[in-house]
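Hi W.,

Here's what went into the run:
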Amino acid sequence: MNHLPVLIPVTLLFSAFLIPLAGFFKRDLAFAIALIGAFLSFVFSASGLWVVTSRGDLRYHLGGWAPPIGIEYVLDALSAFMTTVVTLVGSLVLLYSRRSILQEVPERFVPMYALAMLLLAGLSGIIVTADLFNLFVFLEIASLSAYALMAVGDERGPVASFRYLILGSIAGSFYVLGVGFLYFSTGSLNMADVAQRLPDLYQSRAVAAAAIFIFIALGLKMALFPLHLWLPDVYTYAPSAITGLIAPIMTKVAAYAVIRMFLTVFQPHYLRDILPVTSVIAWLGAAGILYGSIMAIAQSDFRRMLAYSSVSQIGYIGLGIGLANPLGLIGALLHILNHAFMKACLFLVAGSIRFRTGRWEVSSFAGLGRKMPWTMAAFTVAALSMVGIPPAAGFFSKWYLLLGGIDRGNWFFVATILLSSLLTAVYFFRVLEQVYAVHSREPSTPVIPSDPPASMLLPTVILGVGVLVLGLLNSVIVSRILEPVAAALK
Amino acid sequence: MAGPVESFFSFAPLAAVLISLLAAVLISLSSRRPNLRETWTIVAALCKFAVVGSMVPTVLAGLYPEINLFDIAPGISLALKADPLGLSFALSASLLWIFTSFYSIGYMRALKEHDQTRYFASFALCLSATMGIAFAANLMTFFIFYEVLTISTYPLVIHKESPAAISAGRKYLAFLLSGGVALLLAVGLTQRVAGTLNFTPGGFLSVSMGQAELLTLFVLFLVGVGAKSGLMPLHSWLPTAMIAPTPVSALLHAVAVVKAGVFGFARVMGFVFGPQLAGEIGATTLTAVIAGATIVIASLLAMAQDNLKRRLAYSTVGHLSYIILGTVLLAPAGWLGGLFHVTTHAAMKITLFFCAGAIYVKTGRENVSELDGIGRQMPITMAAFTIGALGLAGLPPVGGFLSKWFLAQGTVETGQPILLAVLLLSGLLNAGYLFPIVIRAFFKSSKDFTKFDEAPPLMVIPLLFTAAFSLLLGIYPDGIFHFYSLSSEAVASVLKGVVP
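Here's what came out:
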């Protein structure tokens, strides 16, 4: 039981190392191990979530060294919630990925899975660790595997990925600098320990610089406007299954790190009242919502449209965090979950369309509603959820954000949250029109597209149904998991 | 008048919602077997009406069926409750769905329309949402079904899949989703200022919240529900949406969707603000001005339309504002007239749309100017049309007379001569744009229409039923379904203690 915090990343890390060995003998063994590893860590995360919400936090001391000297892994409601989201969505996307990768990059099948597991290990490590420097290590593990994964793909992939590498390394440096400043000021790297010592140092400029550096770094990783520049290209040119894996969870984990820094390391009081970081995040979030939505409207490439839509949805999460009140944070956390489901579903749909037709321009989607009915049904649910139509999940995160905005009394934020629903409707209904109402003008191709094979269709549909289920059950999630987390802001 | 009001646990309101939801699933699954598919529609329509109808006696006895499903957000439950106001709306929508189902089958098959499965499934979904709106026990539940209705109507609006239909769909979404956003903000603000969203007869907001804030909140609500109910200047999607197949225009754009808007207004007026508070903050005056203007302008615009369905659409815009006007008159008669008009206008307008559809199926004509002498070919259809037209103009013995009579009485009781003049003038205007059609049909001759040749029975019989229903509402208003009692019970619950 007490090993749960460490079991989650270790399982993933272990399967990442096992995959090249097993894949050497039989290619599909690599896929099987990846799937089992991801699913096991999901089981650990979900049981961890259960234990944590009923009995309290789980702490694990690596190597038996007690903090602040040793590294500590913590499962509390927030981190257990996050690992569950990451490993669940990760498992579903991995299940989907096999046929897609076999079609798009068959020659790199085994290394792709090894890297994917390494990525998941890095992401889950960021979530469970309670050590500032250990977080950096996991951040780099996740980033390096992401650079490699995204560089495979079409010919523009390497360039896009290289740009991400440059920006990502800058972010990494900022983070280390920030942590260094904190270490010099407090003499500790353990989050709880640092948090305890910080209140005496609130007037220190070094601490202020540390906070600014860390939030710039995490903002870049999170793709918070205007630090999102790397995102559209890598999402567009990476292999479909890889975008499906990275887009829903990676930026969210960075958002989680922001929340962790906000709630646990620097106390809310500091970032809200002394150094107004939260206000900056809120305004950047609002700007990102509008910018991302407008850019998404301007795209004709479906994947690029989804990428800009991600920029906009990240803006929601940023705005929710920046509101710095309980309802805003609940909205942000719920949106991390909801958006992971919606975006995974949407990118898997994009992958399925590419799998069957080889196309990704929205204008070539005419008539797909009849040819790929189940895929498009899942798309419709996810799209309506993005627009914020109840009872789909996306509505409820917007509802809490709206209430948070009202509590904050900032009518610009309220208007942004509402207006962006309409902008989102513009770009998604444009696709829906094409899919359902426009008849294909092209001469009929020899291959008539149909729904993809079951291994791809099933995860897509599960995610689509999940969007509805999460919407109807949001009250349970909010009151059992998120409200206790957000109570820190009262 | 019934004794003390109580509510009791019952699955009936939930069943009313779920029946057509289930039907939508079954319809989608039987796309290859049209007869089975249409059977689901009919069975669902009959079952739904039976379930809704079964609640009438208990509700009239002061016992309201209620079901709290689960919390949809902390402290806000997804709850359905059949009170007289909701029940009268649900009853008229579900009764008219039966006629529309038969009519739809006749219409769609006669025109050999494409994608009939999508059509019938969306239709069933719309009815589910309408029931949810009618029975919603709080604003959140109301909002959820309100948005579902917006979305499930969209496939019906763009059914033709022509560029014009797609652009009509865009316009539809632009208006209704924007309205939805205003409504969402209003619901969110209500939640924060009042701490509750539960509908309470007589309202739950209080004047202590500040007059300016309350008026702003009211305007947001007005925009939110006004978009659906065609309140000017938010009406222009409605005539454009007439590109949808005629049964859609008939049931949704005359009965379910737009009535959901005015029903929402009645809910907000009677169960969120309360008539008294709305009067104190000046909301009633504001609404009366807008509704009065809408009535007159829409009637004038209707005269200028040559396309029959567009003319009927503008007429709908005007008549919806009758209902809104009725609910802002602080008099029982005004409320009664407004609520009763929900049902009577539904019956009359659906008849007219059915007639327009029958004419289109039989002759392919859509314009009023092409209908000279059509009464010779389709006398039954045009007779039904005449009944509907008389009713909309407010002439006895059709139901429209009664609702207009009560509305007029309301304006007199509250001393509003201008509004009375608006009502009387619009009665004349109604006659002005509807009677010429009847005159053309019966008293002008044309070479095209000489032989008796009616639309298929699946279309003619439903329109006769709805015409008969319009008459019945005028002659024997309480009828077999107690529409009149339900309306007056609803009025009593809202105005209890407000007006002597």
